[in-house]
Amino acid sequence: MEKGDGWPVCGLCGRPIPPDVPQSLHHLVPKLKGGKGGPTVLLHHICHKEIHATLTEAELARNYATVEALRAHPRLERFAAWVRRRPPGFGSKVPGRRGRR
Q1: 9 CB burial (10 A radius; 0-12, 13-18, 19+)
Q2: pLDDT at residue 91, as a whole number
Q3: Alpha helices (H) in 15-95, listed in sequence order
Q4: What are the pLDDT digits (tens) for 18-76?
């Protein structure tokens, strides 16, 4: 996905990713669960950290192996709506794992 300015777009929040902003590739199926060499999606580093603070490797492999499934997870959906209102370069520390709901 690309936006008008030519920057890639984050697969979770949909904001552009400027070249000077921390970014990372998320393996849709975790490497430890057989996803090595599998499909990846480019994300803001803050979005990637939120995914891993929310879901275990097993949950990611079993139920969240697509961008659509990640976006539909209630906590990630709320996070994406919140971070979407921030500038593309926004970064913040993501707290550790929260209790499962």
Answers
A1: middle
A2: 77
A3: 45-54, 57-63, 67-72, 74-83
A4: 999 999 999 999 988 888 889 999 999 999 999 999 999 999 999 999 999 999 999 99
With a CB cutoff of 8 Å and minimum separation 6, the contacts of 99 are none
> Measured in Å, how far apart are the chain's first and last C-alpha atoms?
32
Name the nearest CA neighbour of 75 among 93, 96, 50: 50
Torsion of CA 66, 71, 33, 99, to 10 degrees: -160
84, 14 in Cβ contact below 8 A? yes
Q: What is the pTM of this model?
A: 0.83
What pLDDT sits at residue 1? Answer: 45
